[in-house]
Amino acid sequence: MSNDEKPYYNDLIGDMLKRNDETQGMQHLKGAGKPLPKEYFSGDTFQHFQRIAKDAGYKPHWLKLQHEIRDELTSISEILEVEPHTDVESRIQKLNEKIREHNKHCPPPMLKGTVSRGTINVAKGYWM
């Protein structure tokens, strides 16, 4: 490696900020242009990042998926209550794909299993 080349490193937070800036811009963020509170500079950096992200309204991808899955489970359940013989297999298959995607990104205690026609109402209980 020559002196001009910089070593590659993984900057996840920087990449997320760049992507957000390109798609949504950073001017709309609450508190833009104001100094950060002093408490953000003391203690654990990761915890402070989480607090700042939460204050800014950031939701992790897995949490967005969790809300979508909950809403889809409710929708399928309501359809089956009205017409139990309705064909919902394709919707359940798409729902299970979302559940697998959720499980790839969520914290380990939040992992959940896939659903079937017979387990929709049980699954609704643990996705709420």
How does this model look, in words?
- This protein is an all-alpha fold.
- It contains five helices and no strands.
- The chain is elongated, with a radius of gyration of 21 Å.
- The model has no long low-confidence stretch (mean pLDDT 82).
Helix content: 40-55%
Overall pLDDT level: 82
Q: What percent strand?
A: under 5%
Q: What structural class do helix, strand and pairing data support?
A: mainly alpha
One letter per element, helices H and strands E, the order comes to HHHHH
Shape: elongated
The rounded distance between the terminal residues' Cα atoms is 53 Å
How many β-strands, per DSSP? 0
Poorly predicted spans: none
Main beta-sheet strand count, sense and barrel state: none
Q: Supply the number of helical segments.
A: 5
Cα Rg: 21 Å
Q: Which quaternary structure do these chains form?
A: single chain
Give the SSE map.
Blueprint: H1 12-23, H2 45-55, H3 61-82, H4 89-105, H5 120-127
Protein name: DnaJ family domain-containing protein
Domain DnaJ homologue subfamily C member 28 conserved: 26-74
Task: Put the structure in a nutshell.
55% of the residues lie in helices and 0% in strands. It is an all-alpha fold and 128 residues long.
Q: What brief labels describe this structure?
A:
128 residues, mainly alpha, 55% helix, elongated
